[in-house]
Amino acid sequence: MSLLTPSIRPSAVARLNPISKLGAAIVVSLALLLSIDWVSALVALALEGVLLYWCGLSARQFWLRTSTLWIAAPFAGLTTVLYGRDSGAVLLTIGFVTVTDGSVQLGLAIALRVLAIGLPGIVLLATTDPTDLADGLAQVLRLPARFVLGGLAGLRLVGMFIEDWRFLSLARRARGVGDGGGPIGALRRFFGPAFALLVISVRRGSKLATAMEARGFGTAPRTWARASAIGAGDAVMLGLGLGIAGIAIAVAVWAGTWHFVLS
């Protein structure tokens, strides 16, 4: 079962060690953060689009899980275009808002970067089982078992939090709480269940921590039921991450758009 849904069909990427997928995503993200130009982001996004086809997500699953990102990226780019640093020829002036060649290119680069960094993370997360991720963190990266098991327990509760939110909203609607129109009613409908969910989460977390302490989690050296190791497929995944990062930077340097962010 993946972090987001149990209906992901098996794929070559889903069978890889989560650490290799995490490493590939981090390599690409770091490469894109070294420069804010649209060419490297576009090249990385195009190469990622080819590889994401093999992740096992159907078209519907892909668009549902990445819909927020497709909405956020244009807004981030538009905000940068309107209020970013001005440079080059002035294209539009409305009051205190000035749009220039430089701000348009910067806005395009920001929007493409949001997609190029966010899409692999979301898709790879959807094809990763929480237990496999915990096994990799503990056995491959040698992270403390107490930290790993605590994180695994928290990930397992995400689905419960979603169900709690839905039931709280239905219960409040059945009692007629926060049904008033306008912005005040919308705030009540949000903050009421949010506070109740916070209280439930704290109580549930405390009980879970007590239960885990009572069963000896993190108090002694642990053994693991399933072995987690890096294989040839994982090496290929890491190589693909390095290849995407290298090609994106090389094309941007060749096009003359790559500039180190700290220079």
Automatic annotation (TrEMBL):
Pfam families: CbiQ. Its main location: membrane. InterPro entries: ABC/ECF_trnsptr_transmembrane, ECF_transporter_component. It is found in: Membrane. It is a multi-pass membrane protein. Keywords: Cell membrane, Membrane, Transmembrane, Transmembrane helix. The chain crosses the membrane at residues 22-55, 62-84, 104-128, 235-261. This is Energy-coupling factor transporter transmembrane protein EcfT.
